[in-house]
Known about the structure:
Mean pLDDT: 94
Low-confidence stretches: none
Strand content: 5-15%
Shape: globular
Strand order of the largest sheet: 4-3-5-2-6-7-1-8
Number of helices: 13
Helix content: 40-55%
Amino acid sequence: MASHLLKFLKQNIASYLLITATLLTSGLIINIVQVLLHVFVKPFNKRLFHHCMYYASWTWLSQAVFIIDIWSGSEIKIYCKKEDFKYIGKEHNFTLINHSYEIDWLVGWLMIEKFGGLGCTRGFIKNAIKYIPICGWFFGLAEHVFLLRSFDKDEKVIEKNISEYMTYPNSTWIVVTAEGTRFTKEKHETSIKFAKEKKIEPFKHHLIPRPKGFNTCIPILKKHNCPVVYNVQLAFDKDSDVKPTLGNLLMGKKVTAHIYIERIPMNDVEPTFEYLYDVYKSKDALQDSFHKYGNFYEGRGLKPEEGITMSPRIPVLINQIFWTIFELSFMAYCTIELILAGRFILLITITVSVTALLYVMLQNILRHSKVNKGSQYGKSR
Length: 381
Protein backbone atom coordinates (compact mmCIF):
# COMPACT_ATOMS: atom_id res chain seq x y z
CA MET A 1 0.00 0.00 0.00
CA ALA A 2 2.74 2.45 1.01
CA SER A 3 4.80 1.63 -2.08
CA HIS A 4 1.79 2.24 -4.35
CA LEU A 5 1.13 5.59 -2.67
CA LEU A 6 4.77 6.60 -3.04
CA LYS A 7 4.74 5.60 -6.71
CA PHE A 8 1.57 7.64 -7.24
CA LEU A 9 3.13 10.70 -5.60
CA LYS A 10 6.28 10.44 -7.71
CA GLN A 11 4.25 10.29 -10.91
CA ASN A 12 1.85 13.08 -9.98
CA ILE A 13 2.30 16.58 -11.40
CA ALA A 14 0.97 18.01 -8.11
CA SER A 15 4.06 16.66 -6.33
CA TYR A 16 6.40 18.36 -8.80
CA LEU A 17 4.51 21.64 -8.41
CA LEU A 18 4.69 21.37 -4.61
CA ILE A 19 8.45 20.80 -4.76
CA THR A 20 8.78 23.82 -7.06
CA ALA A 21 6.59 25.99 -4.82
CA THR A 22 8.56 24.97 -1.74
CA LEU A 23 11.85 25.82 -3.42
CA LEU A 24 10.58 29.24 -4.46
CA THR A 25 8.94 30.14 -1.13
CA SER A 26 11.89 28.98 0.96
CA GLY A 27 14.28 30.64 -1.47
CA LEU A 28 12.59 34.01 -1.02
CA ILE A 29 12.68 33.66 2.76
CA ILE A 30 16.36 32.69 2.63
CA ASN A 31 17.06 35.71 0.38
CA ILE A 32 15.65 37.92 3.12
CA VAL A 33 17.75 36.13 5.75
CA GLN A 34 20.84 36.58 3.57
CA VAL A 35 20.22 40.32 3.23
CA LEU A 36 19.80 40.64 6.99
CA LEU A 37 23.07 38.77 7.53
CA HIS A 38 24.88 41.14 5.16
CA VAL A 39 23.44 44.23 6.86
CA PHE A 40 23.47 43.30 10.55
CA VAL A 41 26.14 40.61 10.98
CA LYS A 42 28.88 40.81 8.33
CA PRO A 43 30.08 44.36 9.19
CA PHE A 44 30.57 43.38 12.85
CA ASN A 45 31.51 39.69 12.91
CA LYS A 46 32.57 38.08 9.63
CA ARG A 47 33.20 34.69 11.22
CA LEU A 48 29.65 34.55 12.59
CA PHE A 49 28.37 35.79 9.22
CA HIS A 50 30.06 32.92 7.38
CA HIS A 51 28.75 30.36 9.88
CA CYS A 52 25.19 31.66 9.47
CA MET A 53 25.52 31.87 5.67
CA TYR A 54 26.71 28.26 5.68
CA TYR A 55 23.39 27.08 7.14
CA ALA A 56 21.32 29.49 5.05
CA SER A 57 22.97 28.10 1.92
CA TRP A 58 22.66 24.49 3.03
CA THR A 59 18.96 24.64 3.83
CA TRP A 60 18.11 25.78 0.29
CA LEU A 61 20.59 23.75 -1.75
CA SER A 62 19.76 20.57 0.16
CA GLN A 63 16.19 20.79 -1.16
CA ALA A 64 17.64 20.30 -4.65
CA VAL A 65 19.79 17.47 -3.29
CA PHE A 66 16.64 15.88 -1.83
CA ILE A 67 15.27 15.41 -5.35
CA ILE A 68 18.15 13.24 -6.48
CA ASP A 69 19.18 11.67 -3.18
CA ILE A 70 15.87 10.69 -1.57
CA TRP A 71 12.99 11.43 -3.92
CA SER A 72 14.53 9.48 -6.84
CA GLY A 73 16.60 7.17 -4.63
CA SER A 74 19.65 7.71 -6.83
CA GLU A 75 23.11 6.61 -5.77
CA ILE A 76 26.62 7.93 -6.10
CA LYS A 77 29.68 5.72 -5.97
CA ILE A 78 32.97 7.33 -4.99
CA TYR A 79 36.29 6.03 -6.32
CA CYS A 80 39.50 7.32 -4.77
CA LYS A 81 42.57 6.19 -2.88
CA LYS A 82 41.69 4.90 0.57
CA GLU A 83 44.28 7.11 2.24
CA ASP A 84 42.72 10.18 0.57
CA PHE A 85 39.09 9.45 1.42
CA LYS A 86 39.49 10.52 5.06
CA TYR A 87 40.61 14.01 4.01
CA ILE A 88 37.89 14.78 1.47
CA GLY A 89 35.55 17.49 2.71
CA LYS A 90 37.73 18.36 5.68
CA GLU A 91 39.94 20.87 3.89
CA HIS A 92 39.69 23.91 1.63
CA ASN A 93 39.95 22.68 -1.95
CA PHE A 94 39.81 23.73 -5.59
CA THR A 95 37.71 21.23 -7.54
CA LEU A 96 37.91 20.64 -11.29
CA ILE A 97 34.82 18.76 -12.50
CA ASN A 98 33.70 17.81 -16.00
CA HIS A 99 30.57 19.45 -17.41
CA SER A 100 29.03 16.76 -19.62
CA TYR A 101 25.53 15.98 -18.35
CA GLU A 102 22.25 17.75 -17.66
CA ILE A 103 22.47 17.07 -13.94
CA ASP A 104 26.23 17.16 -13.28
CA TRP A 105 25.72 20.35 -11.21
CA LEU A 106 23.18 18.51 -9.06
CA VAL A 107 25.35 15.42 -8.70
CA GLY A 108 28.21 17.71 -7.67
CA TRP A 109 26.05 19.22 -4.93
CA LEU A 110 25.00 15.72 -3.84
CA MET A 111 28.63 14.57 -3.63
CA ILE A 112 29.65 17.63 -1.61
CA GLU A 113 26.64 17.26 0.69
CA LYS A 114 27.72 13.69 1.47
CA PHE A 115 31.05 15.10 2.66
CA GLY A 116 29.36 17.84 4.72
CA GLY A 117 30.42 20.80 2.59
CA LEU A 118 27.25 21.83 0.74
CA GLY A 119 26.74 25.04 2.72
CA CYS A 120 30.25 26.21 1.89
CA THR A 121 30.34 25.42 -1.82
CA ARG A 122 31.29 28.29 -4.09
CA GLY A 123 31.53 28.38 -7.86
CA PHE A 124 31.97 30.51 -10.96
CA ILE A 125 28.61 31.43 -12.50
CA LYS A 126 27.78 33.32 -15.68
CA ASN A 127 26.83 36.91 -14.91
CA ALA A 128 23.33 36.77 -16.45
CA ILE A 129 22.13 34.41 -13.69
CA LYS A 130 22.46 37.08 -10.98
CA TYR A 131 19.41 38.85 -12.41
CA ILE A 132 17.14 35.82 -11.94
CA PRO A 133 14.90 36.37 -8.88
CA ILE A 134 15.48 34.07 -5.90
CA CYS A 135 18.07 31.80 -7.58
CA GLY A 136 20.37 34.57 -8.81
CA TRP A 137 19.87 36.60 -5.65
CA PHE A 138 20.74 33.54 -3.59
CA PHE A 139 24.05 32.91 -5.35
CA GLY A 140 24.98 36.59 -5.26
CA LEU A 141 24.26 36.99 -1.57
CA ALA A 142 26.10 33.72 -0.85
CA GLU A 143 29.18 35.29 -2.49
CA HIS A 144 29.59 33.09 -5.54
CA VAL A 145 31.66 34.52 -8.40
CA PHE A 146 29.71 36.01 -11.31
CA LEU A 147 31.74 36.15 -14.51
CA LEU A 148 31.29 38.38 -17.53
CA ARG A 149 33.52 36.01 -19.51
CA SER A 150 35.85 38.90 -20.25
CA PHE A 151 39.11 38.13 -18.49
CA ASP A 152 40.14 41.77 -18.12
CA LYS A 153 36.97 42.39 -16.11
CA ASP A 154 36.81 39.03 -14.35
CA GLU A 155 40.41 38.78 -13.09
CA LYS A 156 40.05 41.18 -10.15
CA VAL A 157 36.67 39.68 -9.19
CA ILE A 158 38.24 36.21 -9.10
CA GLU A 159 41.22 37.38 -7.04
CA LYS A 160 39.00 39.15 -4.50
CA ASN A 161 36.59 36.27 -4.03
CA ILE A 162 39.18 33.47 -3.91
CA SER A 163 41.10 35.36 -1.21
CA GLU A 164 37.86 35.80 0.75
CA TYR A 165 36.96 32.09 0.47
CA MET A 166 40.22 31.10 2.10
CA THR A 167 39.19 33.01 5.26
CA TYR A 168 35.97 31.00 5.67
CA PRO A 169 35.86 29.01 8.94
CA ASN A 170 34.28 26.00 7.20
CA SER A 171 36.11 23.84 4.66
CA THR A 172 35.28 25.45 1.32
CA TRP A 173 34.76 23.73 -2.03
CA ILE A 174 35.59 26.05 -4.94
CA VAL A 175 34.06 24.16 -7.86
CA VAL A 176 35.14 25.03 -11.39
CA THR A 177 34.71 23.59 -14.86
CA ALA A 178 37.78 24.74 -16.77
CA GLU A 179 36.09 23.87 -20.06
CA GLY A 180 34.02 26.99 -19.45
CA THR A 181 30.77 25.50 -20.73
CA ARG A 182 28.86 22.24 -21.04
CA PHE A 183 30.04 19.60 -23.51
CA THR A 184 27.91 19.35 -26.68
CA LYS A 185 28.59 17.89 -30.10
CA GLU A 186 28.77 21.32 -31.72
CA LYS A 187 31.11 22.73 -29.07
CA HIS A 188 33.25 19.60 -29.28
CA GLU A 189 33.69 20.10 -33.02
CA THR A 190 34.84 23.67 -32.36
CA SER A 191 37.23 22.40 -29.68
CA ILE A 192 38.72 19.82 -32.07
CA LYS A 193 39.23 22.51 -34.69
CA PHE A 194 40.96 24.73 -32.11
CA ALA A 195 43.21 21.86 -31.00
CA LYS A 196 44.31 21.15 -34.55
CA GLU A 197 45.11 24.83 -35.09
CA LYS A 198 47.26 24.82 -31.94
CA LYS A 199 48.81 21.48 -32.90
CA ILE A 200 47.69 19.74 -29.73
CA GLU A 201 45.78 16.48 -29.36
CA PRO A 202 41.99 17.01 -29.06
CA PHE A 203 39.96 15.13 -26.47
CA LYS A 204 37.19 12.60 -27.07
CA HIS A 205 34.97 13.48 -24.13
CA HIS A 206 36.03 17.00 -23.10
CA LEU A 207 36.57 20.41 -24.57
CA ILE A 208 40.04 21.95 -24.54
CA PRO A 209 40.19 23.75 -21.15
CA ARG A 210 40.47 27.52 -20.88
CA PRO A 211 43.47 28.27 -18.66
CA LYS A 212 43.10 31.95 -17.69
CA GLY A 213 40.79 31.42 -14.69
CA PHE A 214 42.77 28.39 -13.51
CA ASN A 215 46.08 30.23 -13.87
CA THR A 216 44.67 33.16 -11.89
CA CYS A 217 43.30 31.02 -9.06
CA ILE A 218 46.25 28.72 -8.35
CA PRO A 219 48.79 31.37 -7.20
CA ILE A 220 46.16 32.92 -4.91
CA LEU A 221 45.28 29.52 -3.47
CA LYS A 222 48.95 28.78 -2.85
CA LYS A 223 49.41 32.15 -1.19
CA HIS A 224 46.58 31.33 1.23
CA ASN A 225 47.81 27.76 1.83
CA CYS A 226 44.93 25.94 0.20
CA PRO A 227 46.19 22.35 0.46
CA VAL A 228 44.71 20.52 -2.55
CA VAL A 229 43.12 20.39 -5.95
CA TYR A 230 40.45 17.71 -6.46
CA ASN A 231 40.29 16.28 -9.96
CA VAL A 232 36.69 15.04 -10.04
CA GLN A 233 35.41 12.93 -12.92
CA LEU A 234 31.69 12.17 -13.17
CA ALA A 235 30.29 9.42 -15.39
CA PHE A 236 26.99 7.64 -15.98
CA ASP A 237 26.45 4.32 -17.72
CA LYS A 238 25.66 5.40 -21.28
CA ASP A 239 23.54 2.26 -21.85
CA SER A 240 21.32 2.79 -18.80
CA ASP A 241 17.55 2.72 -19.43
CA VAL A 242 17.16 5.83 -17.24
CA LYS A 243 18.96 8.85 -18.62
CA PRO A 244 20.48 11.36 -16.17
CA THR A 245 17.96 14.17 -16.62
CA LEU A 246 16.17 16.41 -14.14
CA GLY A 247 12.83 15.26 -15.54
CA ASN A 248 13.58 11.63 -14.74
CA LEU A 249 14.68 12.52 -11.22
CA LEU A 250 11.44 14.40 -10.57
CA MET A 251 9.52 11.32 -11.71
CA GLY A 252 11.38 9.34 -9.05
CA LYS A 253 13.54 7.40 -11.49
CA LYS A 254 16.83 6.22 -10.05
CA VAL A 255 20.22 6.88 -11.63
CA THR A 256 23.67 5.84 -10.47
CA ALA A 257 26.52 8.34 -10.72
CA HIS A 258 30.12 7.20 -10.65
CA ILE A 259 32.61 9.76 -9.33
CA TYR A 260 36.36 9.45 -9.43
CA ILE A 261 38.28 11.80 -7.11
CA GLU A 262 42.01 12.39 -7.41
CA ARG A 263 43.47 14.43 -4.57
CA ILE A 264 46.40 16.48 -5.88
CA PRO A 265 48.65 18.34 -3.39
CA MET A 266 48.67 22.05 -4.24
CA ASN A 267 52.49 22.06 -4.28
CA ASP A 268 52.34 19.73 -7.32
CA VAL A 269 50.00 22.02 -9.26
CA GLU A 270 51.36 24.48 -11.81
CA PRO A 271 49.42 27.52 -13.11
CA THR A 272 50.12 26.80 -16.78
CA PHE A 273 48.08 25.69 -19.77
CA GLU A 274 50.37 22.68 -20.18
CA TYR A 275 49.61 21.44 -16.66
CA LEU A 276 45.86 22.01 -17.03
CA TYR A 277 45.89 20.30 -20.42
CA ASP A 278 47.57 17.24 -18.85
CA VAL A 279 44.91 17.14 -16.11
CA TYR A 280 42.18 17.12 -18.74
CA LYS A 281 44.07 14.51 -20.71
CA SER A 282 43.88 12.29 -17.62
CA LYS A 283 40.18 13.15 -17.25
CA ASP A 284 39.62 12.10 -20.86
CA ALA A 285 41.36 8.78 -20.20
CA LEU A 286 39.15 8.23 -17.16
CA GLN A 287 35.98 8.94 -19.14
CA ASP A 288 37.10 6.80 -22.07
CA SER A 289 37.81 3.88 -19.76
CA PHE A 290 34.39 4.19 -18.16
CA HIS A 291 32.57 4.30 -21.51
CA LYS A 292 34.46 1.24 -22.78
CA TYR A 293 34.65 -0.94 -19.66
CA GLY A 294 32.13 0.49 -17.17
CA ASN A 295 34.89 1.53 -14.77
CA PHE A 296 37.65 4.11 -14.49
CA TYR A 297 40.51 1.59 -14.32
CA GLU A 298 40.70 -1.05 -17.06
CA GLY A 299 41.26 1.42 -19.89
CA ARG A 300 44.30 2.72 -18.03
CA GLY A 301 45.72 -0.74 -17.42
CA LEU A 302 44.74 -0.82 -13.73
CA LYS A 303 42.81 -3.33 -11.66
CA PRO A 304 39.16 -2.21 -11.20
CA GLU A 305 38.17 -1.16 -7.69
CA GLU A 306 34.79 -1.10 -6.01
CA GLY A 307 33.24 2.30 -5.46
CA ILE A 308 32.14 3.52 -2.03
CA THR A 309 28.37 3.96 -1.93
CA MET A 310 27.34 6.80 0.37
CA SER A 311 23.93 6.57 2.03
CA PRO A 312 21.38 9.41 2.14
CA ARG A 313 21.78 11.77 5.09
CA ILE A 314 18.81 12.19 7.42
CA PRO A 315 19.25 15.99 7.78
CA VAL A 316 18.37 16.38 4.08
CA LEU A 317 15.06 14.58 4.63
CA ILE A 318 14.29 16.50 7.84
CA ASN A 319 15.01 19.81 6.10
CA GLN A 320 12.68 18.91 3.21
CA ILE A 321 9.90 17.84 5.58
CA PHE A 322 10.21 21.13 7.47
CA TRP A 323 9.93 23.32 4.36
CA THR A 324 7.14 21.16 2.87
CA ILE A 325 5.08 21.44 6.07
CA PHE A 326 5.74 25.18 6.12
CA GLU A 327 4.57 25.49 2.50
CA LEU A 328 1.44 23.38 3.02
CA SER A 329 0.60 25.28 6.22
CA PHE A 330 0.92 28.60 4.40
CA MET A 331 -1.30 27.35 1.57
CA ALA A 332 -3.87 25.98 4.03
CA TYR A 333 -3.92 29.24 6.00
CA CYS A 334 -4.53 31.35 2.89
CA THR A 335 -7.21 28.95 1.66
CA ILE A 336 -9.09 28.94 4.98
CA GLU A 337 -8.91 32.74 5.26
CA LEU A 338 -10.44 33.17 1.80
CA ILE A 339 -13.16 30.55 2.47
CA LEU A 340 -14.11 32.15 5.78
CA ALA A 341 -14.28 35.53 4.05
CA GLY A 342 -16.57 34.02 1.41
CA ARG A 343 -14.21 35.00 -1.41
CA PHE A 344 -14.59 31.83 -3.44
CA ILE A 345 -14.06 33.40 -6.86
CA LEU A 346 -10.83 35.00 -5.65
CA LEU A 347 -9.71 31.64 -4.20
CA ILE A 348 -10.34 29.87 -7.50
CA THR A 349 -8.60 32.64 -9.44
CA ILE A 350 -5.52 32.58 -7.21
CA THR A 351 -5.37 28.79 -7.22
CA VAL A 352 -5.58 28.55 -11.02
CA SER A 353 -3.12 31.43 -11.55
CA VAL A 354 -0.52 30.14 -9.08
CA THR A 355 -0.79 26.58 -10.42
CA ALA A 356 -0.35 27.80 -14.00
CA LEU A 357 2.62 29.97 -12.99
CA LEU A 358 4.31 27.10 -11.15
CA TYR A 359 3.74 24.80 -14.13
CA VAL A 360 5.30 27.30 -16.53
CA MET A 361 8.26 27.84 -14.21
CA LEU A 362 8.79 24.10 -13.78
CA GLN A 363 8.73 23.54 -17.54
CA ASN A 364 11.15 26.42 -17.98
CA ILE A 365 13.56 24.89 -15.44
CA LEU A 366 13.36 21.49 -17.15
CA ARG A 367 13.85 23.03 -20.59
CA HIS A 368 16.91 25.04 -19.58
CA SER A 369 18.48 22.05 -17.84
CA LYS A 370 18.72 20.20 -21.15
CA VAL A 371 22.13 19.93 -22.78
CA ASN A 372 20.92 21.42 -26.07
CA LYS A 373 19.64 24.49 -24.22
CA GLY A 374 23.05 25.45 -22.87
CA SER A 375 24.72 28.78 -23.51
CA GLN A 376 26.27 29.77 -26.83
CA TYR A 377 29.63 30.09 -25.07
CA GLY A 378 32.15 27.64 -26.49
CA LYS A 379 30.68 27.45 -30.00
CA SER A 380 33.57 29.64 -31.10
CA ARG A 381 37.03 30.14 -29.61
